[in-house]
Amino acid sequence: MAEILYFPGMKGGFALGLIWQHEETPPSLRSLRVSAAELGRSFRWSVVHQSPAGAIQSGFCEPLHGIRPASLRALAAEVASHHRAPWNGIFHLEGDRYWYIAVRQGHAIIPGGDRIGTIKDLTSLRERHRALGEWLEVDGTLQDLASIVRTTKSTTALRDVQSGPWKAAAYAGVAVASLAVVAGGAWYWYDQQQTAEREALAARQRAFAAAQLASEAARRESRPWAAEAVPSEFLNACRREWNGQALAHSGWPLASWRCRAVSQTAIAIDVTWHRSGGVALDAPGALSEDGNRAASTRDTATSFAPSGPDILAVSDARRALWTYAQRVGVALQVAMPPPLLPSDNGAPVDPWLLMTAEIPFGAPPWLGPGHGLDTVPALRLTEIGYDAATAVWNGKAKIYALRHGLPQATQRDVNVGGGK
Fold this sequence. Notes:
By secondary structure, this protein is α+β, with helices and mostly antiparallel strands. The chain has helices at about 30-40, 75-80, 120-130, 140-150, 165-175, 180-220, 230-245, 315-330, 410-415; strands at about 5, 15, 20-25, 45-50, 55-60, 70-75, 85-95, 95-105, 110-115, 135-140, 160, 250, 250-265, 265-275, 285, 295-300, 310-315, 335, 350-360, 380-385, 390-400. It has three domains: about 5-165, no CATH class; about 165-220, no CATH class; about 225-415, no CATH class. The strands form four sheets. Strands 12, 13, 14, 15, 16, 17, 18, 19, 20 and 21 form a ten-stranded mixed sheet that branches. The chain has a four-stranded antiparallel sheet with strand order 3-5-4-11. It is globular. The N and C termini lie far apart (about 60 Å).
């Protein structure tokens, strides 16, 4: 069931909880009526949205009492292009009500990607969607949504696709049909209308199937790991930052240090400090509420060379990962993504999945423990960190692997274990 959201100072409202479907071309009003009827007799309101990337979608919902559809815009359409795709977000509305949005290729809203519910329900839905591939995940509040909407270009308002001049014509046809003289003509008109609508539906279904095939072909060619730094390059960039890092500042010793992958041209350094004889005036960063801790973050420009396209099947990737761990002598924690569910059949699925791993390096990884990570194809470090209290270094990584294995020739070309 759709709901309405209003933002202070903004004209009109925003509808949440629509059902979205792909369109090859902007659908006609007749096509929208057919689609609405397929969803159920109560579905009357619709909107057509085309993303900046060219993805065309139609959204549907049931009428909301006491509201004109023309006064509403679809919130999902308003915010879908705010982040790079693919992304999803959970936003707190009020009390135990949250809103979930999920957007993938072309900034298209996926089936089930415009949903209202409790945090438990929506977190479970997000977990299921993780099986579709990699996501940028965002969490926010009502205020965050308001800020996003204020910066986006307004989209088309909703409309009632089951109203208009056609209904008056239909009613007149029914009235005249009781007269034997014109009964045959009325039936012929009705049959022609039904035939045209069936043909339009069939054409839309064919177009949708063709679009799915094209999307799948593009998805099969997608290699996001090839645009990310190999572990050795990421470690070298982090090492340069660590070598220039001050370990104390005016009575504020370093408490933790973290190096994160941000993009192909930047890394981020997060540092926390704790007070040990210093005063708040000298705190090297944003001060905590109790005045005893401080934190700072900085982005650092860097340049990573494109990495290779090699990737393994899941079983071979796990074998390569454990081979590295056993050679270096570290204990890994590896997590698989949740399995796909039957209800996810309508959503686009990447041909690869994403495993994650936590790596307890112990010592700075560039001094030895990190050597050998490059031998695991499609492994990419996402961050490394140091905790001063335990003097321990840890890392996090993601490992891309093909869901359904590799062609035999490709398997022979990849060095699984890292040796010769």
